[in-house]
Amino acid sequence: MISVNNPYLPYPVRIADIVVDSPDKSLRTFKFEFLDPEDETRFEYLPGQFAELSVPGQGEIPIGIASSPTEKGYVLFTVNRVGQVSSYLHNMRVGDVMGVRGPLGHPYPVRDLKGRNIVVIASGFAVTTLRATVAWLLHPDNRPNYGRITFVYGARSPGHLLFREDWEAWQKRDDIDVYVAIYKMVPGWTGKVGFVPAVLQEICPPAENTAAIICGPPIAIKTTQPVLFEAGYKPDNIIMSLENRMKCGLGICGRCNVGPEYVCKDGPVFTLAQLNELPPEY
Amino acid sequence: MSDYLVSEKTLAGFFTALATGRRLLAPQGQGDDCRLAETTGPVSLDYANTHLSPKGVFFPQTEKILAFHKLADKPKANQYQDLGDQAQPTVIFGLRPCDARGLTVSNRVFQNDRFTDPYWKGKYESAIKIGLACLNPSPQCFCAAMGGSPFGEMGLDVLAYPKDQGLGLKALTPAGEEILKKAQAEPADLAADMAALEKKAIQSQGSLDDYATINERKIMELYKADHWAKTAEPCLGCGVCTFFCPTCHCFDIQDEQNEVGGVRMRNWDTCMSPLFTLHGSGHNPRPSKVERVRQRFMHKLKYIPLKQDGVRGCTGCGRCVVMCPANIDIRSVAAVMAQASA
Q1: Any chain B CB within 8 A of the CB of A49?
Q2: Mean pLDDT, rounded, of chain A
Q3: For the complex shown, is ipTM > 0.85?
Q4: How far apart are CA A18 and CA A14, in angstroms?
Q5: Do B250 and A58 touch (CB under 8 A)?
Q6: Are residues B110 and B219 in the same domain?
Q7: Is A110-241 CATH 3.40.50.80?
């Protein structure tokens, strides 16, 4: 958990590795190691939670945790270069010291979904916390607790698909159905082609005893919902992760609220049934 | 808990005793200059309310919270260190009941169901809060309409009121009782006196709307009502309402640095600014003043009551009504919300 005495104080970390994830270099995945190994124990998290990456002198950005707690010794974050902090971070180097403050928010309700089938639907680089979710579900400690697992993932081009090693390995397993798509055909591609909702429509698992976990840009989330409704999914069983501008991550600084709920403290994970009662301010 | 009296003759000594071993903050000056400031007495009892709300005592307009250095040859380079809560032993005399109530609203945000803000907690919980009831609420006041009272006790250790050129005092917490005993206030029975004065003070606020239907309506019913564009129309987006409001608690966090190190600080922020919610992508969930004005009133009158057992985020202090350059009046907005249909 986050520091009890002062939840504003980041844990010091060292950048252990940086992977450039996309052809336009707008995405990089950072691997951090905690300077104090005990901080790794304190940073106990579950898939779907996020943390504030804290760059001295620049500020903080809230980013979903891309690693699974079943992966020990490090934490992973994929950062899109958009503003002051993320641009500065993209220019930092392996060995540099900075901070990670978290974990924050609530995880996907994986523990409540025991005994059920799960379909995980990812669009674009929002795949990060879903990559963590699938890695967690497939861990030998967890896999027997769940039924059928399906992973649907789409991105613009093969170069924009993250975590290739992971999903290629998952494709070889017989305890998960993996569908990876690009939006437009390119030579040499052997996977599916089309936007995520279209791919999902083709392969959508039956709604019975199944929960859908969706993360992606607003347009992908919006266009995926009708496909799930058509397949019989109820709003209670459609689980989504929101993002809003944040500062404190603690439900105090006031800017990320959706009605009375704070995306940072009460989310970022909400069911569609919950969101249907709230203003669409996200 | 008991009641106490401080006579005109012992009043100066009472304030000296309060200020012994801790700082005493009390309202100083008049009108726009009236503010909480350190004093050892005398303390004027003749003021409507402080120009600014007292929230800045616990939540300064700008506050350094963390610091770091960049000197690679020294330990802990680029690691943030806590600067502490900067709390000092404090007694506040003269909080108006509306403001004390407002501070409890912020307190439940800064110490919420999951996290505790150490900078707020250190300062808020160590301060002894002595309220001063309003015998003659000013024309801008409407605490009773918002569920409070000119003699409200919420968030106070002691409630005082001017009596015979001295003070009547009601202890509300053990800490309040202790400080009154130490200051040698004389025991008394003031219940009947206070009840009569409270009734008179409430009556002076005129006939009051209780806006109860807002509580009964669903969020989306209030949100989708068709008056918001009209309600927001005069707003200039200046944010003065949020800076003066005793319950507005929003802040920004920023780093400042030089060649050798820097600090992380937090500064008051305002939901009236488009930057407040602007995503890095350019998307803004509250893109125009209609959404922003709706957010402010929904937050005060619907969201906070939902999360805080019915206590509203407006305490009727009236500062926003007086300060708004466009004459937006939260009482009118609440009345419209209470009546409007989706």
Answers
A1: no
A2: 95
A3: yes
A4: 11
A5: no
A6: no
A7: yes
